[in-house]
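Re: that backbone. Tokens:
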């Protein structure tokens, strides 16, 4: 006995989760049709009941609900409407669909129910997941409420005379309790069932090609960068998929190669004209008009080989490269924008080197038409000789961060500046409010005009952000440098498919206690869990399209994975690929990754196309390999730079949900750019400044220097952002946000000096000894106002290490967000010159933070001296404030009063900032606080007369 369901898909991203559940409870898979098919073409005699899926929009709009209305009114079968289906059912009988009291997306609620029919045998209250911005009110007499929330929002209905039921919540969500039982109750409410056996999908027979993969193992632990540089860096269209972080078992392997082999190809695709170009050495490009996924599937089929049983990894040669975001046009999306890079670019690798970072061995792989081909033997012999001549490494520790070269300061431009991006976030929130989408993964595009050395920059990138899916592609179209931590899809030899979406991030803490507090905050955050759950349910849906019904499951939900710089909220979704499906079909069903679109995927991608006003290109796509043995492993393209023709670009973004704050979301995009901006300093010499910020480098430049200072016994950095600059005053918040992210990279305890109030922030970071004491400091209450928004998310961590004199701060826990990154936080108002020496009126500053010339210098000096006593670093820490020159010099003095200064310079109009810093090692003995330094005692210091003319000091001056 089995029950056959007609499942109407309202273009939702959770429909196939219903499909999976219904397959389980019915004994056979349902038939899925979309809401825009011809209703008259459906033979209802083939079905026992109907389920109408969730979806975006409103039931009154034809595009949104389509044939679902006719199914309810004319179907004559037991019918269950879920979410949008529920709203449509109610509206068709006279109820009103209105805005809900608040949008509820990916969030659990307890509902109460009548314990009959659909809810028979289920507990009340029942924990369910809700995805809706609209709700039903004013039920007509023929409809009866069956479930509701504690605040009276309708969660379920039944028709009093017809076999019609509706559920506002989502029984198919992985976090809804008793979802299977509820759908089983619906099955039991269906009077007719069918006898006989259910047809099973026919297994697709793989016809093996005449090729064989020859392998050779070399027991020698070598440096991956050296292997790449010696063997492939100068070859055509080379690749380096780096697994040296060894965070996961499958991330222990590094794969390298190029397109120089006799059977190698470099393949590109253009969505606009549907053209595949196949480039082979020495012959003209072969041009084919074919859909790319179809081409890729065919080529893997005709070159198919069995997996080599003696290899500890799945990769047996095949296609290596990227699939760009605009390839969505071949996966149910639309082609709205055209990228300036190919929409897909892959090398067919017929030869490769694989490094096992666990057992310290190397494997050579080569594709041959017969065993022991002479050309293959020669290549393996030459390659083995090169590897055996390399020095043996003792471990896979990444190299130390290289020194920064001096260069001109590059500028970074954003496709959408701050105000424009904030407007787009607000548009996303409005779309969420009216039910068009649950979550929008909105992104921005950054571009820097700079030439880089791709290999050197990638080596630096992987050293500062070790991740399991780092990659370097040096293709004809562009150089791709990726530090992605996120797995898009893996298809194993056992046909188990896995995806690991990431949503939710926290910085690491400096101590075990604070690190655990940050981890727990991420684990329990309602907003982060909601973001993660929405994508988990979406990925389950995508995998259910190609996996065996009932096999898709979530072995790890809301798991915190810890990397060197951050904690991340990661979930794992797995399923078993159907016998008639291939790895390419699985990629097509899931592309682009839901963590880069939002949900429902198709409607949300339409919103993204309108808002972003340009292509994403490589960003947001997938990068990795698809092997000729039927396996695959691809990452999500995030934290990735694209370098071509003297320009470096990358995408930055975040998930916008109903709980999002626009300012915080914009700040988060800048924080996410930090690693790439730091990596670019290897070629550009300095971190880039935002082009829509007038003035020299941003905080990231200085914080990057602070990171390099961290190995010295003492280091100091100070940055000021002042009002009066053309950039918006909220830059102060951006500075603090970047600081919170970047100072977490300094691996030793730090002292943070926040100079706030009046829209200005000064940040001083210094190395502190572990045994440093904590001293009280006077702080003005108004000085903390500007910091509130950026760290309010972390306020609840508690355990602040801050001690403030006589409770001078009215809300000291505002600074607890720095817990884990600082041993002590010192806060004070800025040093503001006298009225006649300052271009702005006092009224433009926060009340209580108005400290003029002499008093300002006195207060600043008290604060810095307190910090000096904390350092126990053998020197004095003195601030010199020159109100007539708008200059503050922060200097660390040793016994001989000779230590490099850290200076911040303003021009007279307050429209420019320039910061210099330097480092030295100092003996640990302590000396008394002395007088202000004489600039003449600092070899690198400018004279007062030079500074008074507002001239900029040279970059990176040293003592």
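Recovered sequence:
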């Amino acid at each position: 006995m089995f029950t056959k369901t007609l499942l109407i898909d309202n273009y939702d991203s959770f429909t196939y989760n219903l499909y999976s559940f219904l397959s389980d409870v019915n004994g056979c898979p349902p038939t899925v049709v979309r809401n825009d098919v011809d209703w008259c073409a459906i033979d209802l005699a083939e079905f026992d009941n109907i389920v109408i899926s969730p979806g975006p929009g409103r039931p009154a709009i034809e595009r949104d609900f389509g044939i679902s209305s006719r199914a309810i009114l004319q179907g004559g079968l037991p019918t269950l409407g879920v979410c949008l289906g529920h709203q449509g059912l109610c509206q068709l009988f006279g109820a009103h669909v209105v805005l809900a009291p608040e949008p509820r997306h990916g969030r659990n609620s307890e509902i109460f129910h009548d314990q009959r029919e659909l809810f028979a045998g289920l507990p009340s209250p029942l924990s369910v997941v809700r995805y809706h911005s609209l709700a039903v009110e004013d039920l007509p007499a023929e409809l009866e409420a069956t479930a509701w929330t504690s605040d009276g929002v309708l969660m379920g209905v039944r028709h009093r005379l017809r076999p019609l039921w509706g559920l506002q919540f989502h029984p198919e969500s992985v976090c809804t309790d008793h979802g299977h039982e509820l759908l089983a109750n619906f099955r039991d409410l269906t009077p007719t069932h069918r006898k006989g056996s259910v047809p099973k999908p026919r297994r697709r027979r793989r016809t093996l090609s005449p090729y064989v993969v020859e392998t050779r193992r070399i027991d020698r632990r070598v440096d991956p960068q050296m292997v790449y540089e010696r063997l492939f860096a100068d070859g055509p269209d080379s690749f380096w998929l780096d697994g040296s972080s060894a965070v996961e078992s499958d991330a222990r392997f590094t794969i390298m190669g190029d397109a120089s082999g006799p059977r190698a190809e470099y393949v590109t695709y253009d969505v606009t004209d549907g053209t595949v170009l196949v480039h082979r050495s020495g012959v003209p490009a072969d041009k084919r008009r074919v859909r790319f996924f179809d081409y890729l599937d065919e080529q893997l089929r005709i070159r198919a080989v069995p997996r080599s049983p003696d290899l500890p990894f799945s990769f047996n040669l095949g296609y290596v490269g990227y699939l760009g975001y605009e390839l969505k046009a071949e996966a149910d999306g639309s082609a709205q924008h055209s990228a300036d890079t190919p929409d897909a670019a892959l090398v067919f690798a017929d030869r490769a080197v694989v490094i096992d970072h666990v057992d310290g061995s190397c494997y050579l792989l080569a594709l041959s038409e017969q065993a022991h081909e002479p050309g293959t033997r020669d290549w393996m012999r030459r390659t083995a000789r090169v590897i055996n001549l390399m020095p043996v490494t003792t471990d896979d520790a990444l190299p130390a961060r290289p020194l920064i070269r001096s260069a001109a300061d590059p500028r970074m431009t954003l496709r959408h500046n701050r105000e424009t991006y904030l407007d787009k976030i607000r548009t996303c929130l409005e779309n969420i409010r009216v039910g068009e989408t649950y979550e929008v993964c909105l992104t921005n595009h950054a571009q820097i005009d700079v030439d880089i050395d791709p290999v050197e920059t990638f080596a630096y990138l992987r050293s500062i952000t070790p991740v399991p899916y780092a990659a370097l592609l040096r293709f004809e179209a562009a150089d791709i440098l990726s530090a992605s931590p996120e797995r898009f899809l893996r298809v194993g030899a056992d046909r188990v498919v896995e995806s690991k979406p990431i949503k939710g991030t926290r910085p690491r803490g400096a101590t075990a206690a604070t690190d655990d507090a940050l981890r727990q905050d991420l684990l329990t955050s309602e907003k982060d869990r909601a973001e993660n759950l929405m994508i988990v349910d979406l990925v389950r849906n995508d995998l259910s399209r190609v996996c065996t019904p009932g096999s898709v499951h979530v072995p790890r939900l809301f798991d915190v994975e810890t990397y060197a710089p951050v904690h991340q909220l990661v979930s794992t979704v797995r399923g078993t690929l159907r016998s008639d499906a291939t790895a390419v079909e699985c990629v097509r069903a899931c592309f682009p990754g839901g963590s880069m679109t939002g949900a429902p995927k198709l409607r949300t991608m339409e919103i993204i196309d309108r808002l972003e006003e340009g292509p994403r290109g490589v960003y947001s796509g997938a990068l990795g390999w698809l092997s000729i043995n039927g396996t695959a492993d691809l990452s999500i393209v995030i934290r990735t730079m694209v370098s071509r023709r003297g320009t470096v670009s990358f995408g930055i973004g975040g998930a916008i949900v109903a709980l999002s704050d626009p300012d915080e979301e914009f700040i988060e995009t800048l924080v996410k750019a930090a690693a790439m901006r730091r990596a670019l300093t290897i070629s550009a010499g300095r971190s880039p400044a935002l082009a829509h910020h007038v003035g020299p480098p941003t905080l990231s430049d200085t914080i990057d220097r602070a990171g390099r200072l961290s190995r010295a016994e003492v280091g100091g950095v100070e940055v000021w952002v002042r009002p009066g600059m053309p950039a918006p005053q909220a830059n102060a918040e951006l500075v603090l946000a970047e600081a919170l992210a970047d100072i977490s990279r300094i691996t030793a305890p730090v002292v943070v000096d926040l100079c706030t109030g009046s829209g200005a922030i000064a940040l001083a970071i210094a190395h502190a000894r572990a045994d440093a004491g904590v001293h009280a400091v006077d702080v003005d209450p108004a000085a903390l106002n500007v910091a509130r928004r950026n760290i309010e998310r972390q306020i609840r961590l508690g355990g602040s290490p801050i001690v403030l004199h006589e409770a001078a701060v009215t809300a000291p826990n505002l600074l607890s967000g720095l817990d884990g990154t600082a041993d002590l936080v010192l806060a004070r108002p800025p040093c503001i010159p006298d009225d006649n020496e300052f271009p702005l009126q006092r009224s433009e500053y926060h009340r209580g933070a108005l400290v003029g010339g002499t008093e300002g210098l006195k207060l600043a000096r008290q604060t810095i001296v307190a910090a000096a006593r904390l350092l126990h670093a053998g020197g004095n820490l003195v601030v010199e404030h020159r109100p007539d020159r708008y200059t503050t010099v922060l200097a660390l003095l040793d016994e001989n009063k000779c230590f490099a200064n850290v200076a911040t310079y303003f021009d007279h109009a307050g429209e420019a900032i320039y910061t210099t810093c330097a480092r030295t090692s100092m003996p640990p003995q302590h000396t008394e606080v002395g007088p202000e330094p004489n600039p003449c005692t600092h070899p690198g210091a400018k004279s007062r007369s030079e500074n008074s003319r507002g001239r900029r000091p040279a970059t990176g001056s040293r003592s």
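Confidence is low (pLDDT under 50) at residues 399-409, 684-959. The first helix runs from residue 15 to 26.
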